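Listing S7. Sequence submitted for prediction.
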Amino acid sequence: MTRFTGQVAVVTGAAQGIGAATALRLASEGAAVAVVDLSVERAAATVEAITAKGGTARGYGCDVADINAVEAVFAQVAADLGGIHILVNNAGITRDNLFFKMPKDDWDAVITVNLTSAYNCSQIAQRYMCKQRYGKIVSLSSRSALGNRGQANYAAAKAGIQGLTATLAIELGPFNINVNAVAPGYIATGMTAATAERVGATPEQHQELAAERTPLRRVGRPEDVASVVAFLVSEDSSYVSGQTLYVNGGAR
């Protein structure tokens, strides 16, 4: 498919996991992808994977928690690739702990990287999108937005993503900009592997337990989320905005 031919997509946190899978999916359908991560070196593997398949991608190093850095990098992306049409706010970290033991620094870090970065990137991207009267923004929330033991900081940030998404859809809709969020359940990534280690399990053991609690009886893959993001940034979802779509195998 070539749904995104002629469009430029910016994907943050795209060095691995859901971000890398999303960058690969959008490139496979014709988008020129700006692979954004903390450094160009971290982004290199995703860029190479895209170009090896004949796609177009460039890597950019950026601390998305710094709005001035975001402004500079997005200007470079627009100059290099010809604009900004799609933004996927995927960058995120965890600093899990029970609330009574959670250091303030860990609260601040997770809120900043997971929520404030989405503000930063959306704030800069909408300048390009409003001017061209077209754009698609998708941000990564999480099932943890509904509450998750040991993740007060992460849950708060991911719930904030949903509120930000609903509000931006109202404000940016008149400029033909769709804004949505995706809330994954358990996805087999480096982040969930780290969670497994924190609770004293192997990634395989952790995934097996999660699969048993999931109606589809498996955990998710990064590609499962990437396919939903691709739908939300395509014209197939042109009348969908302000929504958070849970991608969790039917879990409740």
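Caption to Listing S7: primary sequence and predicted structure tokens for the chain studied. The two ends are 33 Å apart (CA to CA). The chain is about 50% helix and 15% strand.
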